[in-house]
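User: Could you go from structure to sequence for me? I need the amino acid at each position, not a summary. Structure tokens:
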């Protein structure tokens, strides 16, 4: 069986602007952890802003390797459990290491087992994905307990943590002063704002990186990056995670290797559920004003509980 061909848009990280800044900051945390420096970095942003791409790039930058007959895993990614407690958090860590769990074991022994496995495989940084699960539900006491778990985990092993998720996860830090005091300044990934000339230029530069990658792989880009920029922005409201999904769908069942507005319109209809306009941005019958693009941006920030910056 032939191995599946990687999508062009998923074959490399299209980091630029704020996303590049967030990636580089998270990468420094991992690099410093390998020098026995311990940090906790909260990295928050709206849904589909590109956090997944940052995590995947970091895992590729710091892969597992074998030394002296054992596997070392300097960086692992852990899915935060939707109902966090010491047992579920510990199980998530063990799964993140691809470890095994005994069928009958107490929570205390399970935690000790996790610490032992973390030391054996040499984990220096843990990415906790969807960290908002630890703060979205439950009483303040439960949220503080989840924060205590992270604090103690980092303290006992001297490892770094990257807390990645939606901005509502700020509650996790707000309810536990000790965890907040150990954290670096929160890294917020904002979408590009259409109202800002600098952001609009940054968004256009990101589009340029994507189209350049396609052209290098022999694809034809049959749309105008400048005149069609409002439609591209309207499809994702400045969030490159959505844009990556959009182009990935545009590649599917596309033997001509041509990406045009018709192709993007079909991809948008299939891939984008969060639609802020009455029409498809890539159809000629749809006209979206600057005011509508700006209003959609504000709506995205409000939904993510992010403050609206001044431009």
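Assistant: Here is the amino acid at each position, in order:
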């Amino acid at each position: 069986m032939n191995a599946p061909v990687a999508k062009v848009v998923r074959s490399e990280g299209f980091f630029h602007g704020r996303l590049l800044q967030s990636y580089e900051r998270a990468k420094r945390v991992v690099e410093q952890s390998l020098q026995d420096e311990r940090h906790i970095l909260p990295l928050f942003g709206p849904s589909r802003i590109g956090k997944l791409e940052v995590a995947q790039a970091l895992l590729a930058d710091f892969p597992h390797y074998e030394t002296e007959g054992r596997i070392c895993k300097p960086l692992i990614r852990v899915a935060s459990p939707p109902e966090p407690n010491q047992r579920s958090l510990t199980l998530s860590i063990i799964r993140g290491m691809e470890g095994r769990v005994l069928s009958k074991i107490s929570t205390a022994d399970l935690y000790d087992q996790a610490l032992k496995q973390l030391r054996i495989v040499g984990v220096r940084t843990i990415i906790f994905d969807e960290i908002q699960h630890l703060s979205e539900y439950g009483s303040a006491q439960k949220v503080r307990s989840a924060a205590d778990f992270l604090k103690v985990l980092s303290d006992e092993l001297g490892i770094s943590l990257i807390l990645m998720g939606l901005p509502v996860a700020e509650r996790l830090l707000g309810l536990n002063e000790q965890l907040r005091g150990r954290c670096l300044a929160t890294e917020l990934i904002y979408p590009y704002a259409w109202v800002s000339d600098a952001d609009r230029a940054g968004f256009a530069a990101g589009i340029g990186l994507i189209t350049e990658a396609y052209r290098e792989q022999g694809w034809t880009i049959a749309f105008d990056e400048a005149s069609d920029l409002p439609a591209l922005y309207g499809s994702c409201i400045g969030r490159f995670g959505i844009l990556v999904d959009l182009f990935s769908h545009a590649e599917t069942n596309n033997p001509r290797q041509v990406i045009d507005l018709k192709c993007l319109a079909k991809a948008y209809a299939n891939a984008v559920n969060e639609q802020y306009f009455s029409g498809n941005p890539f159809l000629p019958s749809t006209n979206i004003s600057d005011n509508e693009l700006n209003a959609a941006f504000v709506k995205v920030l409000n939904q993510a509980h992010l403050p609206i910056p001044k431009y």
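One structural detail worth keeping in mind: Residues 52 and 149 are 24 Å apart (CA to CA).
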